[in-house]
Amino acid sequence: MSLVPVADQLARVLAEASALPERSLPLAAALGARLSRDVTTATAVPPWDNSAMDGYAVRHEDVADASPEHPVRLRVVADLPAGSPDDPRIGPGEAVRIMTGATLPSDADTIVQLEHTDRDDPLAPLAADVTVLRAPRRGEHVRRAGEDRQVGDPAASAGTLVTGAVAAALSSVGAGTVWVHERPRVAVLATGSELVTPGTPLRRGQIPDSNSLLLRGLAEEAGADVVAVEHVPDDPGQLLRIVEDLRSRGDRAPHVLVLAGGVSQGAYEPVKQAFGAADSGVLFTKVAMQPGKPQAFGRLGSDGPLVFGLPGNPVSAWVSFHVFVRPALLAMSGARGDAVNPAPTQALVEIGWRTPGGRDQVLPARVWDLPDGPRLAPVAALGSKSHLAASLAGANGYALVPAGQQDRHGDGRVHPGDVVDVVRLGLELPPALDQR
Amino acid sequence: MSLVPVADQLARVLAEASALPERSLPLAAALGARLSRDVTTATAVPPWDNSAMDGYAVRHEDVADASPEHPVRLRVVADLPAGSPDDPRIGPGEAVRIMTGATLPSDADTIVQLEHTDRDDPLAPLAADVTVLRAPRRGEHVRRAGEDRQVGDPAASAGTLVTGAVAAALSSVGAGTVWVHERPRVAVLATGSELVTPGTPLRRGQIPDSNSLLLRGLAEEAGADVVAVEHVPDDPGQLLRIVEDLRSRGDRAPHVLVLAGGVSQGAYEPVKQAFGAADSGVLFTKVAMQPGKPQAFGRLGSDGPLVFGLPGNPVSAWVSFHVFVRPALLAMSGARGDAVNPAPTQALVEIGWRTPGGRDQVLPARVWDLPDGPRLAPVAALGSKSHLAASLAGANGYALVPAGQQDRHGDGRVHPGDVVDVVRLGLELPPALDQR
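Structure tokens for the assembled complex are given below, as produced in the milestone run.
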């Protein structure tokens, strides 16, 4: 069987990973979801002409010639805190005390800041008059309505992740609710009779189940809602019963099943045995990627969940998740463009490694910035072996070495000083173990 | 009153922001928290010598001379799936069929992969014999116990954020539960009688409350648990009652109160009025930062919550949060080093801006990577004005321009082509509005 190029497998995945239905939510409930529609400005920002300073709202003509030598006394006719609905009239020779953010009275065109008057104590009771000691420019300290955004201006594009800052911005342009895509619901099924709950004493042949934690965490970090985590022994019948149970959960049924292990040809490969039939909807392929060659992907029925069958060793699962599952979850969440599948940047190799030849290599890596640019090293001291679960704690990105670029030195190795493509995951760099 | 340097204010904050108490949690429940203790390897990785391939476990001496011309026939005495507790004896001239991951029998030292035998169908029933067609190296396809980590090896350092990958790594070294710091509980109190719930029609003088959403989201993005969000009118008595109610909530009481607005000298400044007394525990300062000059910080009582009083305009609140509140939340969560207060990197300025002079400038910015290095532009088309809430949606970092570096061109401006310090927030770059 010839190997499927990584890009072809990803294209198959993304063709099935449409954005989920939209719904309208109050802004606070939309945090963490993605906009399904562009948002335009409904309320100008700021909505009213208002004062940028604590001071006095005046008619500019009254104070145009004010100076310490020729102070101008005005009669104070009102006091305006921020939020006041009042619009006091201001006649010639009159002023209104006004606080920062308060709406400018219709009759005023200029603010004189407190410090340029004889009433510069903001805590003093309102006086009957104020003396202006310096002439302001016309319009000084007035923030104009619509200065930042006018009604109809674009405010945010569909696909935008609703962070706190985005929600605040949308609030400021008049949005109370927004249309967002549903977040994908994910079930994680780790297969393998050898797996036991973490921390359990191991009898001969057993190993701790790390894939459940890995895939649950990665799915949540990709913005998904993990609704079930199950450990399944090497029994295809039991696997199928669990999947049927998950599919029967109505509006809590998962959109995506992420299975780990059991995808190879073998006597004890429950995913392959459960879904290997030609009409299952799931296709088992060998992808030109190292690690992560065996991959299963498809949809159960015409409107059932997507199924990802990832190889069982944790580093292969990690790589497969980042290359195939994460883009799907992001696309289903409504992400667009680079947010679905990040464009690689480049980094200088600090410690070299061996490449597999014939397959694109995806290598979990530690990436850090130096003044002259980013550096990269494999997280596994033992090179690119794929079973090093413990090394994943140190990865904040991965190197991409296409098959065609693996032998530039004639020894099948990437060398220190080489420049390679890297995808950075926006993860905090964990404290190095060897720095203690 | 002289201005307090930013570094001095931050040092005051961090002196109060000790890591919260630790507790022991199962790994799955620890996701998102930070380790309070170093973790060492309790179980070797891998825990057992095991097979890296589907194949036959053999005694190397039996097959050292095997070749297509001189095949070696062995008697098959057992079948070992992954997870089997069995340790079948293997005598001279015998072999055991073994699946990937299964523990190596004590009598075997080498794996012959299926493809190098005459029994290369992994789904075939177990046969009574197998013929080896190629000689393996001694130890071939055997993963040695402890090859990745040996018992006692360091696995993760205190301060590490428990991501999915970290949890998986800790599971693989034998951890079932881990000691983590509590996550800080935060209450957000947005003050201002002019503020109304987002989406509400505005009467004259009102504006939408964006700070509640902003600070709630930013606190959650910093890993905190937001336990209350309240909007408080300009009434110091009501503010104090809300704070007392929050403090009375026992083990759900917030560790941190983040207040926005009302920190200036003025007639309607409820935070200043509620906490301005010398014995309140809260100190009101003017920090040499633009925006965000007025700052209040302190602790209510000897064991009460930390209080941050941030300026009320959203961009000032955003800047103040990143410079002071976020480092405190991270330190309380147990983060260490650069994870508390990220070291800036550098970027080339694409669009210039005006600097304030005399104060360190913190400018919300859009940062993106080009092949020759990162670029930066202010998110507010109007420059560094501090009231542009709507612009925050586009910020994925901020520029830092110290007071002493603001006039290198003699015009008080940062110019295109200048190199400035930048803190990148690990946020996805939102789709640009002008690209549609």
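The helical segments of chain B are 6-16, 27-30, 60-63, 164-172, 211-221, 236-247, 270-275, 314-333. Chain B touches chain A through 123 residues (CB under 8 Å). Further analysis is deferred to the final report.
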